[in-house]
């Protein structure tokens, strides 16, 4: 009887998510890493924060292409004396989010130190660059173009977010999760046998009849609007990628056909002249 209950509990726990990823938040102190964590839905039964060792831990679940991805997010303190924490917590990490404050140039300049630390102890792990406090853009000290160039140079995705407005937070975690699953070969598994959830079907139906800019006018709760914005942006990015790839393939085929046609007729003309 006890064994059956344990097995039933194990089956219930196993159905809570499809993939589990460990994510680290790194960056200087006072860049707003706690703000990012506090804005996420907590999926843990225990206390989400344990700051005694200089870290804060929180779990949340996101929906990615019909699969439930559970994220274990660890916030390492930005103070210099906690740099050794990265060495221990980076083991087994599948994703890194580097955070800076767009109103603090010093926090952006310090990214090189954190990037060097991450590359030393977690080489090859997918990374996302996040510029926090977009709602204070009137105090901006780091240009968006500068951050994009830095992210491109270091092969990272780049987002500017605002925990106060709940903007781009879920998008940044979804992109990191997608990169991590793709790196581990998981994307190939779920795309061959993809089952859409009721939530995603509803989002798809709503987004077909509206766009990102009119979602805020819908009579829906703020959390639902945030998820719809995330879904609409992600879907449009995927669609643009497919359309761009199709256009480039069609262009290449057209060029090849035209080239072969000219070569064929040039050979025939050469024979007539001779």
From TrEMBL:
Origin superkingdom: Eukaryota
Which InterPro entries does this UniProt record tie to the protein? Answer: P-loop_NTPase (IPR027417), Small_GTP-bd (IPR005225), Small_GTPase (IPR001806), Small_GTPase_Rab (IPR050305), SOCS_box (IPR001496), SOCS_box-like_dom_sf (IPR036036)
A GO biological process of this protein is: intracellular signal transduction
GO MF annotation list: GTP binding; GTPase activity; metal ion binding
> Does this UniProt record's set of keywords contain Nucleotide-binding?
yes
Cofactor(s) annotated in UniProt: Mg(2+)
Q: Which SMART domains match?
A: RAB, RAN, RAS, RHO, SOCS, SOCS_box
- Entry's family note: Belongs to the small GTPase superfamily. Rab family.
Q: Name one Pfam family in it.
A: Ras
The organism that produces this protein has a lineage beginning with: Eukaryota, Metazoa, Ecdysozoa, Arthropoda, Hexapoda
This chain belongs to the protein called SOCS box domain-containing protein
Q: Which organism is it from?
A: Anopheles farauti
Record key words, sorted: GTP-binding, Lipoprotein, Magnesium, Metal-binding, Nucleotide-binding, Palmitate, Prenylation
């Amino acid at each position: 009887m006890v064994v059956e209950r344990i097995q039933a509990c194990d089956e219930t726990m196993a159905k809570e998510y499809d993939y589990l990823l460990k994510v680290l938040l790194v960056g200087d102190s006072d860049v707003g890493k706690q703000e990012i964590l506090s804005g996420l839905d907590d999926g843990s039964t225990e206390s989400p924060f344990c700051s005694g060792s200089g870290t804060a831990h929180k779990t949340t679940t996101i929906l990615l292409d019909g699969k439930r991805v559970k994220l274990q997010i660890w916030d390492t303190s930005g103070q210099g004396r906690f740099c050794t924490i990265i060495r221990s917590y980076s083991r087994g990490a599948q994703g890194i989010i580097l955070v800076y404050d767009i109103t603090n140039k010093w926090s952006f300049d310090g990214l090189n130190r954190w990037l060097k630390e991450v590359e030393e102890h977690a080489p090859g792990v997918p990374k996302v660059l996040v510029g926090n406090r977009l709602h204070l853009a009137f105090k901006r000290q780091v240009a968006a173009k500068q951050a994009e160039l830095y992210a491109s140079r270091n092969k990272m995705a780049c987002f500017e977010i605002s925990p106060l407005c709940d903007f781009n937070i879920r998008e940044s975690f979804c992109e990191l999760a997608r990169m991590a699953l793709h790196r581990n070969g998981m994307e190939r598994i779920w795309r061959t046998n993809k089952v859409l959830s009721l939530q995603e079907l509803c989002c798809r139906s709503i987004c077909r009849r509206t766009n990102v800019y009119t979602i805020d006018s819908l009579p829906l709760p703020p959390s639902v609007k945030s998820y719809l914005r995330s879904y609409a942006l992600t879907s449009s990015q995927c669609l643009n990628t497919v359309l761009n790839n199709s256009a480039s393939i069609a262009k290449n085929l057209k060029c090849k056909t035209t080239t072969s046609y000219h070569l064929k007729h040039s050979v025939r003309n050469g024979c007539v002249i001779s």
